[in-house]
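Hi there,

I know you've been waiting on this one. I reran it after we fixed the sequence typo, so this is the corrected version. Both the input and the resulting structure follow.
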Amino acid sequence: MDSSSFKKIGEYEYEGFLETGDEIFESIYKIVEELGIKFSWINGIGAAEKIIMGSYSTSIKDYIRKNFDGEFELTSITGNITTRENSPFIHIHATISDEDCNAFAGHLFSATITATCEIILNISDKPINRKECNEVGLYLWDFNDG
Protein backbone atom coordinates (compact mmCIF):
# COMPACT_ATOMS: atom_id res chain seq x y z
CA MET A 1 0.00 0.00 0.00
CA ASP A 2 1.30 3.43 -0.90
CA SER A 3 -0.03 6.89 -1.55
CA SER A 4 -0.97 5.94 -5.14
CA SER A 5 -4.25 4.64 -3.70
CA PHE A 6 -4.97 8.20 -2.52
CA LYS A 7 -5.86 11.11 -4.77
CA LYS A 8 -6.21 14.80 -4.15
CA ILE A 9 -9.85 15.86 -4.46
CA GLY A 10 -9.61 19.45 -3.29
CA GLU A 11 -7.08 21.96 -2.15
CA TYR A 12 -6.96 20.36 1.31
CA GLU A 13 -8.54 16.93 0.81
CA TYR A 14 -7.43 13.46 -0.20
CA GLU A 15 -9.57 10.38 -0.66
CA GLY A 16 -8.31 6.85 -0.85
CA PHE A 17 -8.57 3.30 0.31
CA LEU A 18 -6.68 0.60 2.13
CA GLU A 19 -6.71 -2.96 0.81
CA THR A 20 -7.22 -6.43 2.25
CA GLY A 21 -4.34 -7.30 4.60
CA ASP A 22 -3.27 -3.69 5.24
CA GLU A 23 -2.77 -2.79 8.89
CA ILE A 24 -4.51 0.54 9.32
CA PHE A 25 -1.82 2.42 11.30
CA GLU A 26 1.15 1.15 9.29
CA SER A 27 -0.66 2.15 6.09
CA ILE A 28 -1.68 5.63 7.26
CA TYR A 29 1.83 6.33 8.60
CA LYS A 30 3.21 5.50 5.13
CA ILE A 31 0.72 7.88 3.52
CA VAL A 32 1.60 10.62 6.04
CA GLU A 33 5.28 10.26 5.18
CA GLU A 34 4.79 10.06 1.40
CA LEU A 35 2.42 13.04 1.25
CA GLY A 36 4.22 15.10 3.92
CA ILE A 37 1.07 15.56 6.00
CA LYS A 38 1.51 17.80 9.07
CA PHE A 39 -2.09 17.81 10.32
CA SER A 40 -5.23 16.09 9.13
CA TRP A 41 -8.64 14.89 10.20
CA ILE A 42 -9.28 11.24 9.31
CA ASN A 43 -12.73 9.83 8.47
CA GLY A 44 -13.51 6.42 7.07
CA ILE A 45 -15.54 3.21 6.81
CA GLY A 46 -14.72 -0.36 5.86
CA ALA A 47 -14.22 -3.85 7.28
CA ALA A 48 -11.48 -5.30 9.47
CA GLU A 49 -10.29 -8.14 11.68
CA LYS A 50 -7.65 -8.52 14.43
CA ILE A 51 -8.99 -5.35 16.03
CA ILE A 52 -7.65 -3.96 19.29
CA MET A 53 -9.57 -1.09 20.88
CA GLY A 54 -9.55 0.42 24.32
CA SER A 55 -10.83 2.96 26.74
CA TYR A 56 -8.63 5.36 28.69
CA SER A 57 -8.86 5.29 32.48
CA THR A 58 -7.78 8.54 34.13
CA SER A 59 -7.51 6.78 37.50
CA ILE A 60 -4.76 4.42 36.30
CA LYS A 61 -3.53 6.69 33.47
CA ASP A 62 -3.58 3.85 30.99
CA TYR A 63 -5.79 2.21 28.40
CA ILE A 64 -7.89 -0.85 29.12
CA ARG A 65 -7.58 -2.85 25.89
CA LYS A 66 -9.91 -5.38 24.34
CA ASN A 67 -9.26 -7.74 21.41
CA PHE A 68 -12.00 -8.34 18.86
CA ASP A 69 -11.60 -11.60 16.94
CA GLY A 70 -13.36 -12.25 13.66
CA GLU A 71 -14.48 -9.86 10.95
CA PHE A 72 -16.27 -6.61 11.80
CA GLU A 73 -17.70 -3.68 9.90
CA LEU A 74 -15.77 -0.47 10.49
CA THR A 75 -18.92 1.61 10.68
CA SER A 76 -16.87 4.69 11.47
CA ILE A 77 -13.28 5.68 12.05
CA THR A 78 -12.51 9.23 13.01
CA GLY A 79 -9.36 10.83 14.27
CA ASN A 80 -6.46 13.08 13.52
CA ILE A 81 -2.82 13.26 12.55
CA THR A 82 -0.75 15.57 14.74
CA THR A 83 2.89 15.85 15.84
CA ARG A 84 4.25 14.32 19.05
CA GLU A 85 7.92 14.74 19.94
CA ASN A 86 8.70 15.89 16.37
CA SER A 87 7.12 12.80 14.76
CA PRO A 88 3.70 12.19 13.21
CA PHE A 89 1.13 10.84 15.67
CA ILE A 90 -2.10 9.16 14.54
CA HIS A 91 -5.05 9.14 16.95
CA ILE A 92 -8.13 7.20 15.82
CA HIS A 93 -11.39 6.20 17.46
CA ALA A 94 -13.57 3.54 15.87
CA THR A 95 -17.04 2.10 15.98
CA ILE A 96 -17.29 -1.50 14.81
CA SER A 97 -20.25 -3.82 14.31
CA ASP A 98 -20.45 -7.61 14.41
CA GLU A 99 -22.68 -9.84 12.25
CA ASP A 100 -25.58 -9.32 14.68
CA CYS A 101 -25.17 -5.54 14.35
CA ASN A 102 -23.89 -5.18 17.92
CA ALA A 103 -21.72 -2.09 18.05
CA PHE A 104 -18.51 -1.54 20.00
CA ALA A 105 -16.47 1.64 20.16
CA GLY A 106 -13.22 2.97 21.54
CA HIS A 107 -9.70 4.16 20.95
CA LEU A 108 -8.27 2.15 18.04
CA PHE A 109 -4.87 0.50 18.51
CA SER A 110 -4.79 -1.92 15.61
CA ALA A 111 -6.93 -3.36 12.81
CA THR A 112 -6.21 -5.39 9.69
CA ILE A 113 -8.40 -4.59 6.69
CA THR A 114 -10.46 -7.50 5.34
CA ALA A 115 -12.33 -5.96 2.39
CA THR A 116 -11.51 -2.27 2.12
CA CYS A 117 -11.22 0.89 4.18
CA GLU A 118 -12.32 4.07 2.43
CA ILE A 119 -10.74 7.17 3.93
CA ILE A 120 -11.01 10.93 3.57
CA LEU A 121 -8.13 13.10 4.84
CA ASN A 122 -8.83 16.79 5.47
CA ILE A 123 -5.35 18.27 5.71
CA SER A 124 -3.71 21.49 6.84
CA ASP A 125 -0.13 22.60 6.34
CA LYS A 126 -0.08 24.01 9.91
CA PRO A 127 0.91 21.27 12.37
CA ILE A 128 -0.71 20.76 15.74
CA ASN A 129 1.78 19.59 18.32
CA ARG A 130 1.08 17.41 21.35
CA LYS A 131 2.58 17.98 24.77
CA GLU A 132 2.62 15.57 27.67
CA CYS A 133 0.06 16.40 30.37
CA ASN A 134 1.17 14.67 33.57
CA GLU A 135 -2.16 15.37 35.27
CA VAL A 136 -4.09 13.37 32.66
CA GLY A 137 -1.30 11.03 31.57
CA LEU A 138 -1.68 11.72 27.84
CA TYR A 139 -0.11 13.87 25.15
CA LEU A 140 -2.70 16.60 24.50
CA TRP A 141 -2.95 19.31 21.84
CA ASP A 142 -0.64 22.24 22.58
CA PHE A 143 -1.52 25.49 20.82
CA ASN A 144 1.38 27.29 22.53
CA ASP A 145 3.97 25.30 20.56
CA GLY A 146 4.22 25.71 16.80
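Quick highlight: The longest helix spans residues 24-35.

Best,
R. S.
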